[in-house]
What we know:
By secondary structure, this protein is an alpha/beta fold. 31% of the residues lie in helices and 15% in strands. It has helices at 90-93, 99-103, 106-112, 147-160, 181-184, 208-224, 246-261, 295-306, 319-328, 364-368, 376-379, 382-393, 422-435, 452-457, 468-487, 498-505, and strands at 2-5, 8-11, 13-14, 20-21, 31-35, 58-59, 85-88, 116-119, 123-124, 137-141, 164-169, 188-194, 197-200, 229-232, 266-269, 291-293, 335-337, 342-344, 357-360, 398-402. Strands 7-8-11-14-15-16-19-20 form an eight-stranded parallel beta barrel, surrounded by four helices. It has a four-stranded antiparallel β-sheet with strand order 2-1-5-6, with no helix packed on it. A hairpin with a 2-residue loop joins strand 12 and strand 13 (197-200).
Amino acid sequence: MEVVVDGTAQPLAALAAGWHAARLPGRDGQDYAYRLDGGPPRPDPASWRQPEGVHGPSRLVDPAGLPGAGDRNPFRPAPLSAAVYYELHVGTFTPEGTLDAAAQHLGPLADLGVTHVELQPLNAFNGPHGWGYDGVGWYAVHEPYGGPAALARFVDAAHGLGLAVVVDAVYNHLGPSGNYLGEFGPYQTEAYATPWGPAINLDGPDCDPVRAFLVGSALHWLADLRVDALRLDAVHGLVDTSPVHVLAELADAVATAGAALGRPLALIAESDRNDPRTVAPVAGHGLGMDAQWADDLHHAIHVAVTGEHDGYYADHRGLPDVARAYRNGFSYDGRRSPSRRRRIGAPLPDDVPGWRLVGCTQNHDQIGNRAAGDRLTTLVDADLVRVAVVLLCAAPHAPLLFMGEEYGETAPFQFFTSHPEPELAEAVRQGRAREFAAFAAFAGGVPDPQDPATLAASTLDRSRADTPEGRARRALWRDLLAARREYFAGAAFTDGCREDSRRQRSGRYPDARIR
């Protein structure tokens, strides 16, 4: 192995267990790359910055030069027991599609009652535009969004308004282009398959450095880049038969880092298993996650207001399952799923508070994985949208809004990519069309992911925010979120159990002037 700096290749000394090392002088902004066995230059798998994209050289970043570095007064976010999440995609949140532009719109979110701003993946991925779930640079901030300095400025702006920052981290797979990890070691395995390709090697030969690479990435975002929490994408794709699951290892490492930094750090998992062990403490043989997304509530509310029963919506009965999710956290807690043809989930213990489950009426998956990316505002009339909002805000779950939902955005959120490789671009285009070929309404009409018009159509308009309807929708959200804080501050939303919330809601509450 060699490292190429300023056009000169420097050899790395071979150490034990496959490691190679050299110590060389460096400077902020200096480009470098690795060369393996005389092959072409490769970017650093742990690069902080990829200014020329995922195939280009890496660039050194001096942590001390980032905005906010060395801050001796660490930000303390609102506790997750009082969390209100707001999910946004940096590339479509503003026409500019940058972190600096997004930071200009944080004030209204704080005024609304949001406490945690959740950013869809920021890690470096192929092409300038995309959802970010096919990233290959687990340590680098996507350059078109502004790189690590822009993220540091965004975090400063959010913290100044009392908003915590959550970053969506994808550790269950790697994207199809720019993934050079296989040349550096056995980072992936063919022993297991995921819907997105080979799994990460978490329990096979030489897996220890792979696990350390994953944990190191998470700590980098939390400690070096000062975000407050990570949302871990599809953790059911982290196949690990080790005695200590990688998530439990990560939970312990994050708890240790939080104690050292003097500020709380959190991990929020996405899982489709409805497994109570996800949020059970590591000491109790759980995975130690602080919270998890709970799709059952979304599905039940969606069926209740739309009447749809296609796909996984066939499993849900509307309002009866909304009530079951209120009581049990999961509506599928050991029941048989007709769409999956097996039992799903297990009962959530009564002492698990509702805030450990994140619920929503819309999120990037539930909108963007529809063929046309249509939002609830275009599926049902305004009265039924208001019903959905009330059902979410009255739930013991921590509520999550998807960008634009606060004023009733009608622009879709469609699946888009910008792969520069023609063959890969065509494969993605055809794959998306095949996915929805069975739906007659969309046969031949699925938006082309590679068409710039698909990205443009998915960008927030915001003109609706200044209409009477938009202002009324925002007032509804603001009033309901205030009502949660003022009147529903009992055990279900702080440190107690969902049973308390049932007793609490059996009483009468003052008029919250909800519009």
